[in-house]
């Protein structure tokens, strides 16, 4: 791993090669900035649990207990626990710094993940396994938000802030690469090695990637410090002079003294109070339900067809399309509102999932449609993160981006839980309807957020 020397103080010359005059790829420009390769690669490795643990729990529990409801509910419990603490961790990262908080939480996280994996391996009672799943979830934090915050800091320092769209799209592509290999690896390990073996791999990835990431100090965003100013005493000579009747600046001075009371500290505004944030998060909760619904129902479809061995490949097709979509989205700047982009991509995703359901049974056609539908996934995530970036102040950026991740996590938990219950009481065909229904229901919230922002703007 290359040394993380921190961001250079020079710009990337708008992506042009000085010697040839040819325009360079925007991704080549991003990685020409010192330190970016290191934190991007290590952050990608540390994110492997997000594509393997939820699915890994479903695969392991369904194999061990042959019950979709238990498997889906335990996966949901893990994901909900993760969602509950993600904003808290984000505030700690913003306040104390990524390294100081990360090295402590990461150590606890690894212990919790290993504890759950070994407990599942020896088949402890279900209530205890539920408790361990929740404890494991409470140690998780949004690595993607930490990486995106570093991108914002580095690009701003090097005069390349206009490339943030490209950087966020790249991170969405990396997310999808993780979701390409994660399900394939999880399904392969569960089917060919041991039903619980897929829980140990993301634990190792998190330990290695996270440790490297938190040792990279050069690109770590600084902690935004609050400067405290103590108000002068009422007996101070300057204060008495300022309050003399007739002084032209007396009113302004008294106002300043009033503002300074309480040591000059100002309460940090809650991220959720900014215009459009709540509808954005609701849209992300609902549309993210589609992905775990798709994973769970597709697992049931493949099991019913006795094709468990190709489950990972089938699941990965959606992520392949999303990766392609992310790279294409990041290579150009779309005109118009980011809210509009999100609504259009959500609409296209709804149609894609509906066609996948209609083609159930024809794996080749389903695979092709999964790739096409996947083209819309990363642009939705990138647009949502950019909306949050444009909405909240810099000192709350990690928290804001973590709320987006949290919304996705909450949605994922509900998706697996609801679909698991549906599959225990209906057919795989019914379960495969859930993805397009969830995405369709998210569109009104995106429209509401867009309307609120336009009205306030």
TrEMBL record:
This is MFS superfamily transporter. It comes from the Bacteria. One of its GO terms (cellular component) is plasma membrane. One of its GO terms (molecular function) is transmembrane transporter activity. The keyword Lipid biosynthesis does not apply. The keyword Glycoprotein does not apply. Keywords: Membrane, Transmembrane, Transmembrane helix. Residues 276-457 form the Major facilitator superfamily (MFS) profile domain.
